[in-house]
Amino acid sequence: MPLDTGRFLADLDTARRIGTYRTGVHRPTFSAEDMESRRWLAGRMAEAGLEATIDGIGNVFGRHPGPGPHLLAGSHIETQNHAGWLDGVLGVIGALELARAGLPVDVCAYADEEAHWGDFIGSRSLIGAFSDADIDAARNRHTGEPLRPKLEEVGLAGRPRITIDPTRYKGALEMHIEQGTQLENAGLRIGVVTGIVGIRQFRIIVTGQQDHTGGTTMRERKDAGLTAVRLLGMIDQEFPRVCAERSVWTTGRVALEPNAPMIIPGRAELVFSFRDLSSEVMDRMEDCLRRVVQESNRRERCPAVIEEIGRSEAALSDPAILAAFEGAAEALCPGAWQAMPSGAIHDSQILARVLPVGMLFVPSIGGISHHWAEDTKREDLVLGMAVLAEAARRLLA
Amino acid sequence: MPLDTGRFLADLDTARRIGTYRTGVHRPTFSAEDMESRRWLAGRMAEAGLEATIDGIGNVFGRHPGPGPHLLAGSHIETQNHAGWLDGVLGVIGALELARAGLPVDVCAYADEEAHWGDFIGSRSLIGAFSDADIDAARNRHTGEPLRPKLEEVGLAGRPRITIDPTRYKGALEMHIEQGTQLENAGLRIGVVTGIVGIRQFRIIVTGQQDHTGGTTMRERKDAGLTAVRLLGMIDQEFPRVCAERSVWTTGRVALEPNAPMIIPGRAELVFSFRDLSSEVMDRMEDCLRRVVQESNRRERCPAVIEEIGRSEAALSDPAILAAFEGAAEALCPGAWQAMPSGAIHDSQILARVLPVGMLFVPSIGGISHHWAEDTKREDLVLGMAVLAEAARRLLA
Q1: A1 falls in which pLDDT band (50, 70, 90)?
Q2: Which end of chain A is more exposed for a tag (fewer CB within 10 A), N or C?
Q3: Residues A19 and A82 in one domain
Q4: Are A96 and A206 contained in the same domain?
Q5: Residue where a domain terminates, one of A279, A312, A345
């Protein structure tokens, strides 16, 4: 059973017709279109000879019936709203093609990686880290609708949830679009993912005093916005001293109150986050951030308090899987690939808690993702499929 | 006819009962309560022997029937929403008391200083600087309701609008609450206003590129929020080099787009303003601001553009009026007064285009204004009234 990249592309094209939106798709988790795509996928798995199930959280699982050692491969099939045709489904159809090419691979579409209803509810359920109480607590991020009745509505209530036995697998593979421009800008066609970066996210609240801009002298003011600007300026100065080559840090949100032209801001809320592959580097960055806040509180009239609001650990790729991807990439596109971290989060990061993992990136045209204009050249899709298959063969050999 | 500060306080207490809100009042311009207060005021003016009129824009004007030389005195009678009991009406009742004390004073409550319907529509109308076309264009700032039908609704349509003859007056006086804490903090009871500061207001727009915080390296980013922080940091560094002792500058508004924690800001909008009494100082500050923007555009990847969105010239107090206030203050509360600029804007700034003007401040408890908790000690109100009257007598002597 040879690899059939034509069949792989044809399945991607078919999936694109379920929930089409312009040149992309709109398949939010548990929408009618999403459920249609899950049923279609289960059918394609069965045709490929896999034992196909849609489980009680929406994971579509195709179990390989033959002897091991096995690999687990997959990604997600739902999309962000009005988003791209490849984000997620590429890794699912790629995994399916591995099984169709005769490799002992279990295929999974992990439910809701795109976080319409929670954080990685599908992959967490699959490793036994999402309880019934978690289901009861989960709500739609946009509408607040509870998850439990939604599972009932889409016909998933009462179905067992699949959990994997890690000893069954040599590891888990995921192919995905890059969602950035590093490959494109470097003229490369394949990214071998060294790991998924960790993220630490903080809220910083600066408290000043709201006053009229005319009646209050500079000496009297407690301008929370100005303190926030100075604090962010210190971060801008200090973070380059402690970061690593690929670290990133971002102030995504600045909210002044009352944010009115003629009123001195009485309160400033900042949301600041940083990412790196190394916990040691992230510890240095966090230490730097806390020292900046401490120094701000020494210098300024407006006190700043810092609170951690999000933390995910980095997930490093397994060395053997990394070596298999690198060997396959160098064999199939010599000099046209690079090793790189994934700045975005993926199900592999959850699977890494129980399995060796590895990921492969294909370029995103213009770096666009989470938008219907997302695309990848067809020859890059085909190359990604070939590298994935070659790496799987090397791992199983 | 001696000055009667008891009558003055009693009138303030009466006005406080029209539109009472907690310990303050709610009399937005042309509300039922506002119109009631205007009719009440016109009645009190007539009782004082003034020729009282409510004109076609809502100005309540009491013309002194006797021979000159005359003074014009007044302030405003409407309030901000749910605001204080003295902001405005203090200067109106103070002016009325001057006339009742036998001084040749025309009294005016200039309509809508609190800008519910426009910028100084009453005082601008009074000096002939508010046209019928301006009335047609004016709308309520909060609701968008047009002014013209509102004037009809409250019974002002078709009434003539009064314009003053500047040659009738030696000058215009206004007593007002400080709306700040400078007098209170210095333990002083009277502020003699050297002038009303000018204001220049600018919008600065920084354009970057919205991207995922994970997938975009620091080298690739165009972070409009970061450029804005650096630009504001430069202002913070450079403005102290060009400002004067009482200059103030403020970034009241910062709006990032999309202002989402995990997205690099693609656009930042800042509203920045500064105030000073001296045009020369304000020219230096504006030049500094424009150089900061130019330097930002030299250093940064995200271009910044600057646009002037507001400009009012400073209005200096007339030297003779200033001397009269200073002499009266030193006579009545030696050592317990200071000369100071007004950081807030007032009708006197409009009148200054055609008349010599001067203002007197009494302390605001805790600096509170534009809030129902606004207050001033009764002995400070009485002292303010006495200084105002003594200064008027000196000017007319």
Answers
A1: confident
A2: C
A3: yes
A4: no
A5: A312
Sort out which chain B residues have CB atoms less than 8 A from A344's CB and list them: 212, 214-215
Which of B141, B199, B218, B369 to mutate to test binding with chain A, by most A CBs within 10 Å of its CB?
Answer: B218
What are the C-alpha distances in Å from B278 to residues A350, A379, B141, B275, B315? 63, 68, 30, 9, 9
> Do A215 and A319 share a domain, yes or no?
no
Instruction: Check whether residue A244 and residue A369 sit in a common domain.
Output: no
Q: Residue with structure tokens 């002038």?
A: B195
Contact A348, A127 (CB under 8 A): no
Whether the CB of B223 is below 8 Å from some CB of chain A: the reply is yes
Determine the pLDDT at residue B166.
97
**What tokens were used for B58?**
């809502």
End-to-end CA distance of chain A: 17
CATH of the domain at A225: 3.30.70.360
Cβ contacts of A332 within 8 Å, gap of 6 or more: A383, A386, A387, A390
CA distance to B83, B346, B359, per residue, from B352 (Å): 27, 10, 11
Non-local (6+) Cβ contacts of B60 within 8 A are B38, B41, B42, B45, B52, B53, B54, B77, B92, B108, B109, B111
CB B78 within 8 A of CB B113: yes
How many whole angstroms separate alpha carbon B330 and alpha carbon B319?
16
List, for residues A165-213, the tens digit of each pLDDT value: 999 999 999 999 999 999 999 999 999 999 999 999 999 999 999 988 8
How many CA atoms lie within 13 Å of B282's alpha carbon, on the beta-carbon side? 17
- The distance from CA B166 to its chain's CA centroid, rounded to whole angstroms, is 22
SS3 content of chain B, % helix, strand, coil (to 5): 35, 25, 40
Q: Do B252 and B206 share a structural domain?
A: yes
Q: What residues make up the domain containing B363?
A: 5-197+314-396
- Average pLDDT in chain B: 97
**Is B367's CB within 8 Å of A215's CB?**
yes
Token pair listed for B164: 């003053």
Query: In chain A, which residues have their Cβ closer than 8 Å to the Cβ of B213?
Result: 248, 250, 252, 273, 275, 343
Answer with the one of B312, B344, B366 that is the final residue of a domain: B312
DSSP count for chain B of H helices, then E strands: 12, 17
Whether B355 and B274 share a structural domain: no
DSSP string, A357-387: EEEEEE--GGG--SSTT----HHHHHHHHHH
Question: Which of B:348-387 have CB within 8 Å of A?
Answer: 367, 369-370
ipTM score of the complex?
0.86
Task: Answer whether A246's CB lies under 8 Å from A281's CB.
Answer: no
pLDDT in tens, B247-274: 999 999 999 999 988 889 999 999 999 9
CB contact under 8 A, B214 and A344: yes
Query: A215–B180: do the CB atoms touch at under 8 Å?
Result: yes
Q: For B58, left (φ over 0), alpha (ψ -120 to 50), or beta?
A: left
Contact B244, B280 (CB under 8 A): no
The verdict on A126 and A92 lying in the same domain is yes
